[in-house]
Amino acid sequence: MISARPKILVVDDLPANLLVLEAILSGLDCELICARSGNEALRCAHAHDFAAALLDVQMPGMDGYELATRLREEVGLRETPIVFVTAFADSSEVVQRAYRSGGVDFLFKPVHPPVVRSKVQFFLDLYASRQRLQAEVAAHRETLAEVEAFNYSISHDLRGPLRPLDGFCEVLLEDYGAGLDERGRDYLRRIRAAAQRMGHLIDDLLELSRVSRADLSRQAVDLSALVSQIDRELRAEEARPVELVCPAGVTALGDARLLRIALENLLRNAWKFTGRQPRPQIAFGRRDDTPPVYFIRDNGVGFDATYAGKMFQPFQRLHGADFPGTGIGLAIVQRIIRRHGGRVWAESTLGQGATFYFTLPA
Fold first, then answer.
1. Which alpha helices (DSSP H) does the chain contain, by range?
2. What does each of the 362 residues of the chain score in pLDDT, given as a tens digit?
3. Whole-model pTM?
4. How far apart are CA 204 and CA 325, in angstroms?
């Protein structure tokens, strides 16, 4: 809710003109701040936030055009509507100079009270709407930050009970497994597997929370080098004859740590879904669009394009239990790319591989 009355800046070197405008606007729900020179108006701009400014064009020293330019340099007034009040004829030269100076509208002398009131009221309504929107955005950001903090705290605390659950099941299997029948040992193995799956899910949720809260440190990043490094790590984990096509020198501007997380999730996906291919192939590259489009393509199982819009939502898994996973990886990728101001999408035909695209604006 907006508590203070919005302010209108009125600037004119003639006191009689200021009195006329004060009388015309007296019935509006606003506070008038009057100044008789450009320098006085600038001092007012340092002390107040304005819904609009009415500037006389012809003033000694600093005229209305120069004042408008100076007001536009003030951080708090860059979006404030400026209306010129002028006795000049309505000519193209006057209009062009006014717009170049940052003006959005005109009032020609002698002013007509209904026109002045309607224009100022419009800017007051616009200001009130903008204030409400800013308050709503701030409230949503605060709520989102609280939810992210809650998720991080809960996920972190859930890890504690899982470690002894998994550990004691392992001890039971190793030290007392011989005293159990096959069904008992199978139950323990299932408990361990479920605990480990929950552990992986919690780790992914924590990663999702971290990338949402992390500060961006933009720099030139060699994406080709990151892809090659991740590929070597994947080969060390799982010896498979995966063919990787990765041209050298593909770079982008972004946060190196977050972009590595995004690329690792995309490459792990490609490795996972090419697991049943006799000749698995993965390609990384860039299309010279504007902005550039980067991609990771594989010849794996693909997916039904009908569900392409859902796959970046948390916990969405298009292949069920056929392939392991928590359904968080692509949500992490989307968060990271959006943090950079880009977008990510996927194209595929079931059984014919998939391609994931993303942009990173300069």
1. 15-25, 38-47, 64-72, 92-100, 113-176, 182-213, 223-237, 256-273, 329-339
2. 344 789 999 999 999 999 999 999 998 999 999 999 999 999 998 888 899 999 998 888 898 889 998 888 876 778 889 999 887 766 677 777 878 888 888 888 888 899 999 999 999 999 999 889 988 988 888 877 777 777 777 767 777 788 888 888 999 999 988 889 999 999 999 898 888 878 877 777 777 777 777 778 889 999 999 999 999 999 888 888 889 999 999 999 999 989 999 999 999 989 888 888 889 999 999 998 888 999 999 998 888 777 677 778 776 666 555 665 667 888 889 989 999 999 999 998 887 889 999 999 87
3. 0.55
4. 10
- Phi, psi torsion values for 137, nearest 5 degrees: -60, -45
DSSP conformational letter for 140 = H
Pairing of strands 251-255, 293-298: unpaired
Write down the residue that tokens 């007034």 correspond to: 77
Estimate the crossing angle of helix 182-213 against helix 113-176, to 10 degrees: 150
Residue 284 to residue 223: CA distance in whole angstroms: 9
320 sits in the region (left: phi over 0; alpha: psi -120 to 50; else beta) called left
When computed from its CA atoms, the radius of gyration of the chain, rounded to whole angstroms, is: 31
Q: Are 12 and 116 in contact (CB under 8 A)?
A: no
Please report, as a single letter, which amino acid is at residue 89. A
Residue 211, SS3?
A: helix
CA distances, 224 to each of 134, 293, 330 (Å)? 40, 14, 20
Cα–Cα distance, 179 to 172 (Å, whole number)? 10
Is the CB of residue 195 less than 8 Å from the CB of residue 166?
A: yes
Q: How far apart are CA 123 and CA 263, in angstroms?
A: 47
Query: What spatial distance separates the first Cα and last Cα of the chain, rounded to whole Å?
Result: 38
CB 260 within 8 A of CB 267: no
Amino acid residing at 117: R
Backbone angles phi, psi at 45, to 5 degrees: -65, -30
Q: Which residue has the tokens 């998939």?
A: 354
Beta strand ranges found along 260-351 (DSSP E):
281-287, 293-298, 344-348
| Distance (Å, whole) CA 6 – CA 52 | 9
